[in-house]
TrEMBL record:
It is an enzyme of class 1 (oxidoreductase). Residues 12-196 form the Ketoreductase domain. Keywords: Oxidoreductase. SMART domains: PKS_KR. The keyword Oxidoreductase applies. Belongs to the short-chain dehydrogenases/reductases (SDR) family. Its EC number is 1.-.-.-. This is SDR family oxidoreductase. The lineage of its organism: Bacteria, Pseudomonadati, Pseudomonadota, Gammaproteobacteria, Chromatiales. The keyword Cell membrane does not apply. GO terms for molecular function: oxidoreductase activity.
Length: 252
């Protein structure tokens, strides 16, 4: 792993949710290679342990904790782990997400609830846990992962998923208005990116549609990792508010 120093990233303490795979894992590896100190959290302890082991073996610095983002106390514990391990928290990346695509006529209200709990409440709980620390430090950076589906409603079957991602975008913008000055807020809105997100649909026809869509369009997760790094490495007086990135071939 390349451990060269990157101004704006080196030595920053970064907490990443949903870090056991996909965008979160790729971002953790890239930021660690650029000198960040990582707190990686997700539900799968084995994947987190492996990630931290590999980061440390490559000369990086990381700790992990099992976290369910639908539980506010879990996010508070993750922020406390950052403080206990490194004495501060500079960036929180609210990345954990669920994409369950199905027509609304299927009335899969359990999936609606799950997406709201993970995609919206999970972001809010991350904000709630980190905000007091950022306010006390008079510095900090929220990076919230939305989606291109938060710019244009994903159709067919993505109505509720898009609703959650539009919400993330709105929450991020409102947060920026409320805490801007010393605290930065960035929304990343990716298109089709290689991750486990595409496996979240239990509705057969929708799952096949999503599978085909990703096969035709997806790009590697490190495309998002580089966008995150770009936002972090800016000088403190520069706040990258939104980054929308799509595969070149993706029309939607």
């Amino acid at each position: 792993m390349n451990t060269q120093q990157h101004q704006g990233i080196s030595q920053k303490v970064v907490l990443i949710t949903g870090a056991s795979s996909g965008l979160g894992e790729s971002t953790a590896r890239l930021l660690a290679s650029r000198g960040a100190k990582l707190v990686v959290v997700a539900r799968r302890a084995d994947r987190l342990a492996q990630l931290v082991s590999e980061i440390k073996a490559a000369g990086g610095d990381a700790v992990y904790q099992v976290v369910d983002v639908t539980k506010a106390e879990d996010l508070q514990a993750a922020v406390q782990l950052a403080l206990d391990s490194y004495g501060r928290l500079d960036v929180i990346i609210n990345n954990a997400g669920l994409m369950a695509i199905a027509p609304m006529s299927e009335r899969r209200t359990d999936e609606w609830d799950r997406m709201i709990d993970i995609n919206i409440k999970g972001v809010l709980y991350g904000i709630a846990a980190a905000l007091p620390v950022f306010e006390a430090q008079q510095s900090g950076h929220f990076i919230n992962i939305s989606s291109v589906a938060g710019v244009k409603v994903f159709s067919p079957g993505g109505t509720v998923y898009s609703g959650t991602k539009f919400a993330v975008r709105a929450i991020s913008e409102g947060l920026r208005h409320e805490v801007g000055g010393h605290i930065r807020t960035t929304t990343i809105l990716p298109g089709a990116v290689e991750s486990e997100l595409k496996h979240g649909s239990s509705h057969g026809a929708s799952a096949e549609f999503v599978k085909a869509f990703y096969q035709q369009n997806q790009i590697p997760a490190d495309a998002v990792a580089r966008a995150v790094a770009y936002a972090i490495e800016q000088p403190d007086n520069v706040d990258i508010n939104e980054i929308v990135l799509r595969p070149t071939v993706q029309e939607f």
